[in-house]
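Appendix C reproduces, verbatim, an entry submitted by the partner laboratory led by Prof. M.T., so that reviewers can inspect both the input and the predicted structure.
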Amino acid sequence: MRWYTKNALTLSGGFMLGAVSALAAGSSMHTVSGEFDVTQTMTIGTTQLQPGNYVIQGQESQAQLNILQNGKVIATVPCHWVRLDKKAPQTEVLSTNHQVTEVEFQGRKEAAKIG
């Protein structure tokens, strides 16, 4: 299941996710970030996210992503980076059964697989 960040989509099970912005910094560390809204409880890693606004951040050189709410890190989840065939046209959060499985960041050829 894909959740597109430019337009909020209603997903099966009544979950909705919409990102407000996605950023990719041009440093050698390739810091990536995307903002998203959760309207129904979901899980990323072992952390349960309640409805609200979150930011997901990571660096392609590290095997983790940080989840922030109100500017504070509320969770750090393990990930591994995989190469995409082409640059992601927009930031997308992919999930199965309300469990985040992957995050693709706009303009990047790498995606973060959770776990």
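The chain has a mean pLDDT of 79. Additional entries are available on request from the coordinating office.
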